[in-house]
Amino acid sequence: MDQGVAALIAGAAGMVGALGGSIAGGLAAIRGAKIGAMSSAEATRRQVQDQSMAEHSHWLRSKRADAYSEFLNQARRTEQAVDRFAFKLHAGSASFEDLTDVDEEIDKLLDCGSTIELVGPEVMIYTKHHLIQKALRIAREVRISFRDESLDIDELGIYQENLSDCREDFTIQARQMFTSTQQL
Q1: Tell me: the pLDDT tens digits for 17-37?
Q2: What's the CATH code, domain 54-179?
């Protein structure tokens, strides 16, 4: 074989090798870019998901704080209406209007409690339910005793203490819920 042909064959072989190396390098670069893009997309998806969860948690915490605060304020107003009624009952000046005030405050308490049913958690729903049951018990006893003129003021005082204790239990549960990261 003469030198020209050998050089031509060697050049062709070198070109095929360079072309093959370029193709292999290009395929590796494409694959690397694809893996990098997929990793980046997954990291972005995770970041968006984590941010969404954090925003939802913040929103829920805010809704719970509003609902609990509204409920506690209304529970306090309900207690005050019962206290006014008890004072007037003890003084012998309680009227049907005073009884209506107690009923209206309890109705408002029931309305405030409905938001807690939606935002939870279960321990707060249970504690709210317990407080409302005490308020309804007071209302029932007050109505019966007002009608029959039979309520013992000491008995009413016990009901008032129970309602106050339930409001305090609700406050403690709410405080614990807000200090625990697991509940949110």
Answers
A1: 777 777 877 777 788 778 877
A2: 1.20.120
The residues near 95 (Cβ < 8 Å, ≥ 6 apart) are 88
Return the structure tokens found at 173: 């549960």
DSSP state of 181: S
Domain segments of the chain: what residues? 54-179
Is the pLDDT assigned to residue 184 strictly greater than 70?
A: no
Element (H, E) at 131: helix 122-148
Query: What gap in Å lies between CA 74 and CA 76, rounded to an integer?
Result: 5
SS3 label, residue 184: coil
Cα separation, 164 vs 29, whole angstroms: 72
Nearest Cα to Cα of residue 138 among 165, 112, 115? 165
Rounded distance between C-alpha atoms, residue 102 and residue 34, angstroms: 70
Judge if the upstream peptide bond of residue 121 is cis by omega within 30 degrees of 0: yes
pLDDT (mean) for 119-144? 89
Residues 6+ apart with CB under 8 A from 105: 74, 77, 78, 80, 81, 82
Whole-number CA gyration radius for the chain: 37
